[in-house]
Specification:
Helix content: under 10%
Number of helices: 1
Radius of gyration: 14 Å
Structural class: mainly beta
Number of strands: 4
Largest sheet: 4 strands, antiparallel
Distance between the termini: 21 Å
Protein backbone atom coordinates (compact mmCIF):
# COMPACT_ATOMS: atom_id res chain seq x y z
CA UNK A 1 0.00 0.00 0.00
CA UNK A 2 1.33 3.42 -0.92
CA UNK A 3 1.63 6.08 1.75
CA UNK A 4 2.00 9.33 -0.21
CA UNK A 5 2.57 12.62 1.53
CA UNK A 6 0.21 15.19 0.07
CA UNK A 7 0.83 18.93 0.05
CA UNK A 8 -2.07 21.15 -1.00
CA UNK A 9 -2.08 24.86 -1.83
CA UNK A 10 -5.31 26.79 -2.37
CA UNK A 11 -5.80 30.08 -4.23
CA UNK A 12 -9.11 31.91 -3.92
CA UNK A 13 -10.28 34.74 -6.17
CA UNK A 14 -13.35 36.59 -4.89
CA UNK A 15 -15.32 38.45 -7.55
CA UNK A 16 -17.67 41.41 -7.16
CA UNK A 17 -20.54 39.30 -8.47
CA UNK A 18 -20.40 37.27 -5.25
CA UNK A 19 -18.69 34.32 -6.87
CA UNK A 20 -15.41 32.64 -6.03
CA UNK A 21 -12.81 30.84 -8.15
CA UNK A 22 -10.70 28.18 -6.46
CA UNK A 23 -7.41 26.74 -7.74
CA UNK A 24 -6.04 23.82 -5.77
CA UNK A 25 -2.51 22.54 -6.47
CA UNK A 26 -1.51 19.18 -5.02
CA UNK A 27 1.87 17.49 -4.90
CA UNK A 28 2.25 13.91 -3.69
CA UNK A 29 5.67 12.75 -2.56
CA UNK A 30 5.94 8.97 -2.69
CA UNK A 31 3.87 8.36 -5.84
CA UNK A 32 5.51 7.10 -9.02
CA UNK A 33 4.80 8.92 -12.28
CA UNK A 34 2.21 6.33 -13.34
CA UNK A 35 0.48 6.33 -9.93
CA UNK A 36 0.45 10.12 -9.92
CA UNK A 37 -1.17 10.18 -13.37
CA UNK A 38 -3.92 7.90 -12.03
CA UNK A 39 -4.30 10.16 -8.97
CA UNK A 40 -4.61 13.36 -11.03
CA UNK A 41 -8.01 12.66 -12.60
CA UNK A 42 -11.16 14.77 -12.39
CA UNK A 43 -13.22 12.06 -10.70
CA UNK A 44 -10.76 11.92 -7.77
CA UNK A 45 -11.33 15.48 -6.56
CA UNK A 46 -13.76 17.38 -4.35
CA UNK A 47 -16.96 19.06 -5.21
CA UNK A 48 -17.81 22.45 -3.75
CA UNK A 49 -21.47 22.34 -2.73
CA UNK A 50 -22.28 20.47 -5.93
CA UNK A 51 -19.89 22.34 -8.23
CA UNK A 52 -17.52 19.95 -9.96
CA UNK A 53 -14.01 21.03 -10.97
CA UNK A 54 -13.84 22.77 -14.34
CA UNK A 55 -10.37 21.43 -15.06
CA UNK A 56 -7.96 18.91 -13.60
CA UNK A 57 -4.53 18.86 -15.17
CA UNK A 58 -1.16 17.38 -14.40
CA UNK A 59 1.53 20.07 -14.31
CA UNK A 60 5.10 20.42 -13.08
CA UNK A 61 5.90 22.45 -9.97
CA UNK A 62 9.44 22.86 -8.67
CA UNK A 63 10.57 20.08 -11.00
CA UNK A 64 8.03 17.59 -9.62
CA UNK A 65 4.62 16.43 -10.83
CA UNK A 66 1.66 18.35 -9.46
CA UNK A 67 -2.06 18.34 -10.05
CA UNK A 68 -3.98 21.60 -10.58
CA UNK A 69 -7.72 21.57 -9.96
CA UNK A 70 -9.72 24.66 -10.96
CA UNK A 71 -13.33 25.50 -10.18
CA UNK A 72 -14.85 28.84 -11.19
CA UNK A 73 -17.96 30.86 -10.46
CA UNK A 74 -18.86 29.15 -7.18
CA UNK A 75 -21.52 31.17 -5.36
CA UNK A 76 -19.80 32.71 -2.31
CA UNK A 77 -22.23 30.98 0.05
CA UNK A 78 -21.10 27.67 -1.49
CA UNK A 79 -17.55 28.00 -0.18
CA UNK A 80 -18.40 27.49 3.49
CA UNK A 81 -17.72 23.77 3.25
CA UNK A 82 -16.02 21.31 0.96
CA UNK A 83 -17.73 18.01 0.24
CA UNK A 84 -15.24 15.27 -0.66
CA UNK A 85 -16.62 12.74 -3.09
Amino acid sequence: MLDPQLKVNYEFTIHEKDTVDVVETITAAGLSGEDFAQFCKKENFPTFEGATPDTVEQIEQDGKPACRISTTNIPSEGTSSIVWS
